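User: Can you fold this complex?
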Amino acid sequence: MLIHQSHLFTKTRKEAPSDEAAKNAQLLIRAGYINKEMSGVYDYLPLGLKVIQKIKHIVSEEMEALGSQEILMSTLQNKDVWVATDRWDDDRVDVWFKSQFKNGAEVGFGWSHEEPITAMMKPHVVSYQDLPVYVHQFQQKLRNEVRAKSGIMRCREFMMKDMYSFSRDEASHSDFYQRAIEAYTNVFARLGLGHITYLTSASGGVFTDKFSHEFQTLCEAGEDIIYVHKHEKVALNEEVFNDQTLADGGWKKEDFELKKAAEVGNIFTFGTKKCEELGLFVMNAHEGKKPVFLGSYGIGITRLVGVLAEIFSDDKGLMWPAQVAPADVHVLALQDSVKAQAAAFAKQLGEKVDVLYDDRALTAGQKFAEADLIGIPWRVVISEKTQAQGKIEVSKRADASRTMQTTEEFLQTISS
Amino acid sequence: MLIHQSHLFTKTRKEAPSDEAAKNAQLLIRAGYINKEMSGVYDYLPLGLKVIQKIKHIVSEEMEALGSQEILMSTLQNKDVWVATDRWDDDRVDVWFKSQFKNGAEVGFGWSHEEPITAMMKPHVVSYQDLPVYVHQFQQKLRNEVRAKSGIMRCREFMMKDMYSFSRDEASHSDFYQRAIEAYTNVFARLGLGHITYLTSASGGVFTDKFSHEFQTLCEAGEDIIYVHKHEKVALNEEVFNDQTLADGGWKKEDFELKKAAEVGNIFTFGTKKCEELGLFVMNAHEGKKPVFLGSYGIGITRLVGVLAEIFSDDKGLMWPAQVAPADVHVLALQDSVKAQAAAFAKQLGEKVDVLYDDRALTAGQKFAEADLIGIPWRVVISEKTQAQGKIEVSKRADASRTMQTTEEFLQTISS
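Assistant: Here's the predicted assembly.
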């Protein structure tokens, strides 16, 4: 894929908007990845959408490997299914956006989807043999948060991957729950966050209060506090950091230190209650009619964009890990006289990897500053100087090293 | 791609839900493509989502060929930008869903995106040289329709591809407008609807009242009426079917016949008014500060799913055109004894094309009836009888012909 920067409509900015306090949103707005619509509401611009698509691709692969099938549920939600489980009232769930149809009937906007998905399954899940079923979606959730102050990390509208498991019983649920933990671990490793992401057990807030876990990524801008073991890959949520837990794990309190973290994933065991309330039962030859066992599994896709921006950035701008970068290589043509060569090279490279090609009439200094801000992993500079040597200048955003290579050498590096 | 039908959670149904009057939704629900959440609100299940993805792929290619860049705007919309153009009041736009933030401030849910996209462009479009800009998105629109009675063809929540053009002046807008007409014509041709889709000029309702066109596909379930020329590929919208238009075109009234049609696409010229109201101006060395010229271009993605279901179906079920079918080939294994061969063949085939493989323990009659309902273009039957001949039975959903082929012969047919 090849994007000509002269064609990209987004402009970078030297200054972040004055009303944006979070580093992730400041950088993403300045570099033209997102636009702030309102507090906690952002639009995804071309480069931002590409980062999202790369994250989605990784998550999709891992969910499909679990045997999950992709669906897309509606944002408009039927009041009835939420009344059935006593989660319609604002006293029970405090993040609802609600409105009315023309006939005056109330309608809710999807902040989560356990109830509609459970109800949707009723014509499809009838017999014991129909289970297990795993489904997932990438969906824009709407949540009426009181405050939204962490940029794209806590939004009133955000993209979530939510997966739901329908199992025969607790034992088969637990097997899948463990496999989901492994799949999530793979996702965060592939995103370049494995070394700073911890599986913690948690109380589940409005969702559930047992058998739930969170994936917490160490991040100064995170809204959670976790206690991280100094020597082992273990962390405990604030809620469970107590003598009982420490004794259960055989840990010493002094081996843990307090860290700020962002919840990038969570997994919940709902049990059978919700399926009983919504009427999702299956027939079993031995036991007769039995309610289905439900689990749910979330990953905050756009929150991850924010976390990645917080962690992979410096004072000059963003520094995306290769697997989520909107392009693999940023090609900079420094003078008009080298544009013919640069264009041909960018085209050739674009057939193998994703390329952003800066073909604009700006100074070298402006191009370098913008490239630092945008944060593509590899940079190739083509100038009269490099051309005189019959080479290109190759560098990486993440370190200061520069080498002169032939185009063939670089094509080989990037393809391998 | 290979989907094992034993793994697909959706069940087909003999009867449509009693509250569903539209043929498209009846068939799509019975075949397990969609689920009815509420009147005018549907969920997209695995096969339905695949049809949507295939349509999106075709539309994406044509929009990118126009030079449009993909973005994704928020569903939550800022009241201010709609007040600025006098489209916030329910008297002006009667399809708003609205709600309130926790602080009491009103928020709208996106029924269209001209205003937010125009406002979003302000930091990016500053100079004459920044134009033109073309952007598009695939977005779930929410519209508070009084009635929703045509199944998935008129929904309160639906997927739209909306594109927006920002041009220097009317002349450059007109050039792009013509190119957009060609791209839309390509889209409908590639979807298999070219022969029954007409470009008609129209009044634009709440959008605009000049320089707008619709793409109307002949369809008995459509909500529009057009007058189609008996001999030429010409049709006129009901609103403009009058003596003046006929005289302008040099047509005779008696050469037209009334037909039901569905609006599958529309293109609008907004002119400069909206950009003036929202403050999107560019500097031009010769003329100073000038407002940008706006156009918008919609295609109803999920409406198209409904139109395709209406048109490509018979009394047995759906009959998808190859380019939008959820799979290319439906492989049916009729007995347990042939499953090893069928599974190996389905796997091999799935490396070249998209395959749905019926590996379930059902009677041949049940499998054929379900295959007719689901409507995959090619069908391959593997049974003890075909195995005895060393062949497979190949047929097409759209005609009754059946041939015996070797697996090699069929692989060659399908790959060519």
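The first strand of chain A starts at residue 2 and ends at 4. Residues 327-415 of chain A form a domain with the Rossmann fold fold (CATH 3.40.50.800).
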